[in-house]
Write a structure and sequence with these properties.
Layout (H helix, E strand, L loop, with lengths): L1 H15 L3 H25 L1 H11 L7 H21 L3 H18 L3 H4 L1 H17 L6 H7 L8
Length: 151
């Protein structure tokens, strides 16, 4: 029985291994799209964004105006890095922290959008632990010939 289980596991591993780069690309693009769109909405309705950060969101440790600017900037910049697969792990970590702060700062998410934030958090953890994969600028730079900084 043990041998059959091992054979099935090896077969499944060989069948799914070529799909790993696509999974990593999919998770990067999905999360990047979600956060970038949220940043665009905040930017497009800036007065509403400032109102929400002042009166609705309870961002810990930061003044509300700083939180509005930093949060919107994070939602516009970090997804670009994630989508391109550039500095993927730091971008995924920063967006994971941002996602967690969003959940803590806005209690209404617990009843309406908490599942979405859990899903995005898990996708970000996938890229944090496994990196960007083969379809990324990280991989392109990793494969580039190494040159000395003094040359």
């Amino acid at each position: 029985m043990k041998n059959i289980v091992q054979q099935i596991d090896r077969l499944a591993e060989r069948a799914t291994e070529p799909l790993i780069p696509l999974l990593l690309l999919f998770t990067r693009l999905w999360v990047a799209w979600v956060f970038f769109n949220a940043g665009l909405i905040k930017y497009a309705s800036w007065d509403s964004t400032l109102y929400l950060f002042e009166f609705e969101y309870q961002v810990p440790l930061l003044p509300w105006k700083w939180a509005a600017y930093l949060g919107t900037g994070a939602e516009l910049i970090l997804p670009a890095f994630l989508a391109l697969g550039l500095l993927t792990r730091p971008a995924a970590l920063a967006l994971f922290a941002f996602n967690a702060i969003a959940v803590v700062s806005y209690p209404l998410l617990w009843e309406r959008g908490f599942f979405d934030h859990q899903l995005w958090g898990m996708m970000l953890l996938v890229n944090l632990f496994w990196g960007a994969g083969e379809v990324s600028l990280d991989q392109l730079f990793r494969r580039a010939p190494k040159q000395s900084l003094l040359e």
